[in-house]
Design brief:
Largest sheet: 7 strands, mixed
Subcellular location: Cell envelope
Number of helices: 19
Structural class: alpha+beta
Number of domains: 3
Radius of gyration: 24 Å
Strand content: 15-25%
Strand order of the largest sheet: 8-9-10-1-11-19-12
CATH class of the largest domain: Alpha Beta
GO biological process, one term: peptide transport
GO molecular function: peptide transmembrane transporter activity
Family: Belongs to the bacterial solute-binding protein 5 family.
Organism: Bifidobacterium biavatii DSM 23969
CATH topology of the largest domain: Dipeptide-binding Protein, domain 3
Amino acid sequence: MMNHGLRIGKMIVACCAAVSLTLALGACGAAEGSKAAAGNAASNSGTLVVDNQLNVITIDPARSFETTTASILKATYETALQFKNNDLTKPQPDVCTYEISSDNKVVTLTLNGDHYFADGKKVTVDDIVFSYQRVQGIKGNPSFYLDGVTVAKKDDKSLTLTSETPNPAIPYILPSVNLGIVEKSVVEANGGTTDEKDGAEKYLNQHSAGSGPYQLDSVAMDSQITLKRNDKFAGSKPAYDAVKFVNVAPTTELTNIKAGTADVALSVDVDEAAKLGKNDGQMLTGTSGNTRFLYFNANPTYGKKASDPNFWKAVRHALNYEKYAAVYGVGSKQAYGVVPSAFLGALTSSDENKYDVAKAKEYLAKSGYDGSEIKFSYASDSDSASQVAQLFQSDMKAIGVNVKLDGKAGTARLDAERSGKSQSGLSMWGADYPDPSDYFVFAPDGTMAQRFGWLTADGVAASKTGDAVASDSAEKVAPYAKAAQEASGDEARGKTWQDLQKAMNENSPIIPIVNDAGVIAVRNGLKGAYYDTLNTFDVTALH
């Protein structure tokens, strides 16, 4: 599986660059320490070995946006807030506690006890303010997290984050490893600033400046990154003396788990991991932040017969969702709405998105479909996308719809989707952060909705496309989107988001099909390990 964690939406460019890195260790991949760790975990000693495909460009938390660095940053930097036990529906205190104003514009963070950097100095409000302002100022990939937010010190115990517009997602964004707290004095001494003149990256690629349970010990980005225990860490003593992240080809990772030369494998293939015998190791799965979906063009100029809402309803009931989930491997399941199942406001079922061929045929008859060809775009260079396209073609044939598959490789498929002229297709949205507000892009007039011609009258007026038209179905859903935008508090936000998704399932040309699973493999007896939706693997949870 390509995606681990939540970092797809804004990281496409970064990932493309990272993939070009060569694998230095090839098939050997083993590192000293893993068997010792297996024997000594209970006594808080030994070295944990983590195999991964190390596509590392930088380990500077304000710049890094590669999936493979998330686990490393999680271990070396503390954040103001955190998610516990993989529960992404409620941020919890870490370095700080928080309060959010009733208008969702001001988040106040207050220091939560004493926390210490590796040199023994206490974490201060000044360190947190500097860390956040640096993320904003250097304008790296993660800077969007705090767009429109003013960070200011309130007093020696607290700071405020003030948003230009209501932003209830801020507490859900703050656990991001990119917002890890750095030691201001150390970073400044090594060229750090809060603007684009910042020169601390070189230092931070070799040395940590955080208060996490581990700190960087040695770094060779294309081969091995080693962490050592931070003896000044204020929390529970880390389970291991050291952690080695070793660059290994995915095809070799499971071999190393079976051989006992690795404790954890992070970039394994889900189908291969499922073959692990009970004496070989364990496959651990969990919900990813990916939503796979089908789309149709609501603009009759491009959608043609596929632009009718009754046609969309026919498709929703024609899909054999279990087969689509099976394509993405063990642990993947039907997506009942655009928001992944682990997030606040997710749907747990949907009568509108239920496999029912008879009902599909009823809606198809209402749509006025005349047997004309429906062109379906998909990524021809992806095995899973190709399988889904074939399943879709078969399901549509079963209700009498003539689908022509239009496979395109790489950016050609994405360009076709972005043009706003694609009739239908398969796509994916990976969450930028674990909050439903990241999915307003699918609501009427949203960024994704614009690609599919799903606009209100106001959206048409604001559109730069001369042939844009308003859709009655978009007008029906718009009030639900407004309610979700105005809601305050987790309970109200969760309810309004469920209402919005139900309305979308009745009226939208966007049809969620699969929330695929993330997977890691671990040796038997590794206590506390789980698939971390946000960071792939949390070494700090081991005990």
